[in-house]
Write a structure and sequence with these properties.
- The chain is an alpha+beta fold.
- The chain is built from 20 helices and 13 strands.
- A hairpin with a 3-residue loop joins strand 11 and strand 12.
- Helix 8 runs antiparallel to helix 9, helix 15 packs across helix 18 and helix 16 packs antiparallel against helix 18.
- The longest helix is centred in the middle third of the chain and has 31 residues.
- It binds protoporphyrin IX containing FE (HEM).
- Protoporphyrin IX containing FE binds next to helix 15 and helix 20.
């Protein structure tokens, strides 16, 4: 079922390469005078046959880690340097906003954390971030396990089912399965709503996918035609989008109403110490509604929930998809992962405590995020003039950028930079265990796991902003630990139960981007019940 929903999505996505090109070509706004900064002149042909971030990578190798990308009079500054990224995201974070990204997402997320204005963001971040406390995450690990069990059960049924009687393997689009799994998890974890999408279809599920397609369409289509007053009535896809939003909003409004009707106002510290093992509703919505002294209006709560629904769904599904893609091409690493799962879990279930022992699985998840960061670019616009730090190749003094400069921090380039990673394009989960400092890079503190003691997963602090899967600074992802644990649990349970092989060649898995990097036609795999003992 969801394959048909996702099939629709794939068709949309296949136009993204074209859309990316047209975005840049049609965004004929103003160019910034960026002085001596190297300039990459984009040729149209560079953009038609592959995703934009591939071209940004080639230009990075050619022009250095800070360059201006010019398409006609429109200019973007492309940053692929950890020191400059650290400056923009952390040291001078409030001199930048989300620029074009906020324009695109505001109609969907309203004043949710991602597009919110600074005032709203400050208020809501202060309230939402404490919601992701340890007891909540512990309860979420149980949720990840029970939702992943549904997927395992579904595959087992397919293997045993009528159509597959006697067959030993089943063919599945794992990208679609991960998308369903991640949707069920985010619904239950954030607002205690069971989409049941692993096994069912419903108008709400369809509306969520419809909204995701639209968010993706808008993020790759620069002319904001949807802003024209009549567009929502005249353009069929915009009419559908409005209808989809209405369905989701009605659902969220109902959940908010229920949560508010059963509100039990409590201090934050007490909320964080609740016995989550006995709670019927462990969701973030419950926490947000029960928090003492915070009377938030329904509209804001709805925007918060919608933002987390969109931000936490496809991103996590993409990590799982690319993890399987990478493991399937590296049978020795797949075996090592399965051996770890067998020795830590046996036939049992992952728990919060056991996650600490699944070290190799955790490294697989972060190595996947290094090679396939979601999203591959972070978008900012300078609110005032700024001087970017020097030290990067080509200009020791740094560059001055005027107010209104659009900046792309290419996480993809940073994560595959030959200056910071050994054999950057290789899949080597073990690399995160090794200390590494490139003495030639002035101002970069190097890679040192001891810088973030107690961190379960490598992060931007350990790598001094060379590894940025969740951004960094004040706008860093609030759901990072949620997402990492979710991916580890889901992947561990898949490998615990099945041997997985790609159906076709790796080259046949074409890659497209919108908000996330995903496949063009799904990740088709053969799954076989594991026979070896574990
Ligand atoms: C922000 C990545 C999962 C909620 C971000 C940002 C990144 C990111 C890179 C920073 C964007 C920027 O600086 O422009 C990811 C990835 C995920 C993931 C790779 C999965 C593997 C989640 C989940 C949730 C979530 C599960 C919620 C449950 C958010 C929110 C923000 C955010 C609310 C905005 C934070 C703010 O501006 O204060 N995410 N995310 N994300 N993410 Fe995630």
């Amino acid at each position: 079922r969801c394959q048909s929903v996702n099939g629709e999505k794939r068709k949309q996505s296949s136009r993204n390469v074209f859309d990316n090109a047209s975005n840049l070509l049609t965004s004929l706004l103003s160019g910034a005078n960026l002085g001596s900064m190297p300039i990459a002149e984009g040729a149209v042909t560079d953009l038609f046959d592959r995703p934009l971030f591939f071209s940004l990578y080639d230009w990075f190798l050619e022009h250095g880690s800070v360059y201006k990308l010019a398409f006609g009079p429109k200019a973007f500054v492309v940053v692929s340097d950890p020191i400059v990224a650290r400056h923009i995201l952390r040291e001078n974070a409030f001199s930048y906003d989300k620029g074009v990204l906020a324009d695109i997402l505001e109609p969907i997320m309203g004043k949710g954390l991602i597009p919110a204005d600074l005032e709203t963001w400050k208020q809501r971040r202060r309230v939402i971030a404490p919601g992701f406390h340890t007891s909540y995450l512990e309860a979420m690990v149980q949720l990840f396990t029970s939702c992943s069990e549904r997927t395992v059960l579904k595959v087992n049924k397919l293997l045993e089912g009528e159509g597959h009687d006697g067959q030993k393997s089943v063919e599945l689009d794992l990208e679609a399965e991960f998308s369903n799994l991640a949707l069920d998890i985010i619904g239950l974890g954030v607002f205690n709503y069971d989409f049941g999408s692993v096994t069912n279809e419903s108008p709400v599920i369809k509306a969520v996918y419809g909204t995701l397609f639209e968010a993706e369409h808008r993020s790759t289509f620069y002319i904001p035609y949807w802003k024209f007053p009549l567009a929502r009535w005249i353009v069929p896809r915009q009419r559908k989008f409005q209808d989809d939003l209405k369905v989701i909003n009605t659902c969220l409004d109902g959940l908010i109403r229920n949560a508010k009707e059963s509100r039990q106002e409590t201090d934050v510290e007490k909320l964080q110490q609740r016995d989550y093992s006995n709670l019927k509703d462990a969701s973030l919505l419950r926490f947000l509604v029960d928090m003492r002294g915070v009377d938030v209006d329904d509209r804001q709560l709805r925007d918060d929930l919608m933002t987390m629904l969109i931000a936490g769904h496809e991103t996590t599904a993409a990590v799982l998809t690319w993890a399987v893609f990478l493991l399937a091409q590296n049978p020795d690493k797949m075996k090592k992962a399965q051996a770890e799962v067998d020795s830590v879990l046996g036939m049992g279930k992952p728990t919060f405590e056991l996650l600490k022992k699944l070290e190799y699985m955790r490294l697989i998840v972060v190595e996947t995020l290094r090679l396939y960061p979601q999203p591959p670019l972070l978008i900012r616009r300078s609110l005032k003039p700024d001087v970017l730090p020097g030290g990067h190749k080509g200009d020791k003094d740094g560059y001055t950028i005027p107010a209104g400069t659009d900046v792309f921090i290419s996480v993809y380039n940073l994560h595959r930079s030959p200056y910071f990673w050994d054999r950057p394009n290789d899949f080597k989960p073990e690399r995160f265990l090794v200390q590494n400092k490139n003495e030639e890079v002035e101002g970069w503190a190097g890679f040192d796991p001891s810088r973030s003691p107690g961190a379960l997963y490598p992060n931007e602090i350990i790598s001094d902003f060379a590894f940025l899967p969740f951004g960094g600074g004040p706008r860093k992802c609030v759901g990072d630990q949620f997402a990492l644990m979710e991916s580890t649990v889901a992947l561990a349970m898949l490998l615990q139960n099945f041997d997985v092989e790609l159906k076709g060649t790796p080259e046949s898995v074409e890659l497209v981007t919108g908000a996330t990097i995903h496949t063009k036609n799904g990740l088709w795999c053969n799954l076989r019940k594991r026979s070896s003992l574990h």
